[in-house]
Write a structure and sequence with these properties.
seven-stranded mixed beta sheet, Urease, subunit C, domain 1, single chain, about 400 residues, 12 helices, 2 domains, TIM Barrel, alpha/beta
Length: about 400
Amino acid sequence: MPPRNEVTIDPVALPDRAGVFRVTLGEGSIAVVEASQAQSARWLAIPGLANLHAHADRSFTVETFRPRSLSEAIAAAAAARTRFTSADVKERALRLFERSITHGVLRIRTHTDVDPVVELRSMEGVLAARAQVSSRLDVEVVAFSTSRNDLSEPDAYDRLKRAVDCKPDLIGASLNASADPKLALVRLLDLAELGDVPLDLHLDEHLNAEKTLAPMVLDAVIARGLIGRLTLSHLCVLGVLPEQHAGDLIDKLARAEATVIALPQTNLLLQDRGHGAPRRRGVTPVRELLQAGVAVRFGTDNVRDWFYPFGDGDMLETAQFAVLATHIDDNAKLLAAICNGRDSLQEGAAADLVLIPASSLDDALARRPPQRLVFKEGRQVGGPALGSS
């Protein structure tokens, strides 16, 4: 007896094997992957895309803005965010979420500002937006203690604790901005344990080897037994550390079972900026991390805001930047980094997938074509109807 809600997709190309295939979805899973009788594929089929670092509350806030430095972007953001309301945050977040679904993103993690500038207004707006798309998009909310919310200060800790009461999926902070990073880390870890939430930190988003905080963070996480509950976003400084120091830090990342999120677009724009032509890429060394067994994922980071005035939430664009900036040439590893660990369509896996009108992954990255068909748990949630021309 055929599965209920069966959907047959034919003909497709798959990124990990030659030939043309027919894919059958049923009961929310990929039921069958088999050879097709067609001579050529109509779509490239890949797992659903995952954007594991975004800032939905800040998205689409600028028409044009070229920050001359990271510090200038931070200052511009702080000035503008004083005018944020929960309602306009919700509207912008919804715009990013809807655009993401159109591109084939089925999971997004958004760092949501918590600080004296916006208090909990960004949290309220993003949580309201998440509720409206929950059937089509998995949204992970990070309660993000920004550089304006130094956790070494009691008021800042209390503010983030109130954010944790809103039930975010993760908590995070910008520790490099703290006047006392060690104390800020202790308080952050205390709060993570109290709320039983994993961590995703903006860390070492700079190129100064003397200011590296990652070893301190990893030692504390390992000491507390928080193995597998840490994500480090950015980690730009890893690319400029001496080889031995970088290797030791990568080994420690592996021992902590930490995930590293690389953000090629924003970091290429902001790092090594303002002193002539950039000579350092500013993107964490993805190939060395992968070789050591560290899980690496990619994210868009900022979209049309003071930190990055471009983009539209398309992870295929991010993947193209990743290939250029990090030389990640293995398609399976690239797909895993933009599809939350999945690198192919396998029978029995969740029927979360994207059909792209392209002949290969390189073709998809080159053209990033629209009119993608998006399926979540076997149900189409984006793009033109499957049978349309």
